[in-house]
Amino acid sequence: MKSKFIGILMNFWISFSLALYFHMGEREEKCIIEDLPSDTLVVGNYKVQRWDMHKHDFLESAPGLGMFVTVTTPAGEVLLSKLYGPQGTFSFTSYLSGEHIICFQSNSTRFAVIAGSKLEREEKFRKTSEETNSNILWWAIVQTLILISVGIWQIKSLRDFFISKKLV
């Protein structure tokens, strides 16, 4: 079964709830920068799922598939660096206030060779947006050329008219 993507749903319970949902490729690292006050407990719930290209749906994770979580303090010190299973909870307490970097990476290498053959949703959206912007640019260039051509034709027609009426 060709699985290409991993979906992650995480909840961070700081002083309020912040939910994130994003897609990752095999062995791809995604990082979140979160400004935290000191002495704050952060709890993250996550679930790793594989994307099935044939069913166009997420499947439960295969055994051995997990998530590697790394948390770095504003001072650059690694606060948490641990491998977790396909679904679970991680937690840490910030002892410094400031921007903490929370990074996630799949531990799977089984599909790394074929992972690049299919785009993730955000890449597909970006590609669609770039194609649309390119089409809009070309349409604007065509409109400009038509406008210039019509303007030149009008000037030539008016000049010929004035010459024929002997006004010039």
Outline the biggest β-sheet.
5 strands, antiparallel
Classify the helix fraction into a percent range.
25-40%
Helix and strand pattern: EEEEEEEEEH
Class by SSE composition: alpha+beta
Mean pLDDT: 79
Shape: elongated
Low-pLDDT residue intervals, each spanning 5 or more residues: 1-16, 111-119
State the separation between the terminal residues, measured CA to CA: 80 Å
> What is the count of DSSP helices, taking H or I runs of 4+ residues?
1
Beta-sheet strand percentage?
Answer: 35-45%
Q: How many DSSP-defined strands?
A: 9
How large is the radius of gyration? 28 Å
Organism: Malurus cyaneus samueli
Family: Belongs to the EMP24/GP25L family.
Main location: endoplasmic reticulum
Membrane topology: Single-pass type I membrane protein
Explain what this protein looks like in three dimensions.
With 168 residues, the chain is of the alpha+beta class. 26% of the residues lie in helices and 44% in strands. The chain has one helix spanning 121-164, and strands at 3-13, 17-25, 29-36, 40-52, 57-59, 67-72, 78-84, 87-94, 98-106. Strands 1, 2, 4, 5 and 8 form a five-stranded antiparallel sheet that branches. A four-stranded antiparallel sheet has the order 3-9-6-7, with no helix packed on it. The longest helix has 44 residues, at 121-164.
